[in-house]
Design brief:
91 residues, 5-stranded mixed barrel, 1 helix, mainly beta, homopentamer
């Protein structure tokens, strides 16, 4: 998993029942101290109700994401926000 | 998923029935504001009728792409354009 | 999928029946206009009879490659040259 | 697999039974000589009791990680610390 | 697949029966001419008896590696040295 910060949302139409009523958030990957980790981002399905600016945990493997969403074997999803980070301790 | 902009098409012959009648588009990955995200691109199967210049949503995992195309388990495909982006909101 | 240009061949012995009689080519990834896309390369199984210098289409996911080679579930292969590119149109 | 050094811990809540009682550590990838390998990191489930500062071996593929954790097919996990490195010999 | 040069070995303890008696080698990825390809490396299971300094072929996908090792479905492994390179011809 990786850490990310929620940056915003994307409005689009995906023609698959899995995405009906699901929210995808723009997540920018960050370092454990919250600073940017390069400039990579991902669109991830939100299952924890994360808001813009929050530090989150992102699972970025299809099978794991389907398990977390209880969408085995039929969820066409790779990236999921699985938790809000309370704290990161380094050192 | 990632955001991309359709740049063009590729004319080729793939010897597998899955690709008969399917169109692959050149998609350049972009940032949420539409600017280039490095210079990576991908050839993705189009299922939404995207045109050159349009901002699109790209699924880039094999199992998810097969699900979206209803091509389980026999679709040899990794990348699919799954939606046209109406808007991206940041911040 | 990605675009590549065939650069050469590799002579090696892989101790698995799948590779008996199969040819692996050195493919350098390129941009749609044929210029180098960084300096990444891959060794890919050739199923289309590509020659050195030709622009080709490379599938780079294991399950898709096994499907294209009709080697499900027993083909230990990730990258396959699936087509020769006739033309790429940008813009 | 890759080598990494444990940097710290992350406190978060993941709403999936797999993660109850499991510890995820911040691991920074390193070169065989222990120096930083770029600045990539990963959050990995610890199964060996690694401590901060220790050099560890990280498995970073979902299916392999599920096997090592005996969590087939239901473990939503991609990265696992599978061993503490006693020594790396180069040359 | 990719080309690599064996750089050394790693001494560690992985608590899974698959790794009993198996040797993992440090492999640095190289260009077809033998020069370094950036500075990426991987720890790969050796099945061909490769020695330090030798040019080898590395398979870097889990399912393919399990097939080559005849460890389906229970081998927690992603990267395998599958051959020693006799020659690479470019151009």
């Amino acid at each position: 998993m990786k850490l990310g910060r929620v940056e915003g949302t994307v409005v689009t139409t995906i023609q698959h029942p899995f995405y009906e009523g699901r929210k995808q958030l723009l997540v920018r990957f960050v370092e454990p101290d919250g600073s940017l980790d390069g400039d990579n981002y991902v669109l991830a399905v939100d299952v924890v109700g994360a808001g813009v600016g929050e530090l989150v945990l992102v699972q970025d493997e299809g099978n794991s994401s389907r398990l977390i969403l209880d969408a085995i074997p039929n969820g066409p999803v790779r990236s999921v926000i699985v938790g809000i980070v309370d704290a990161a301790f380094v050192g």
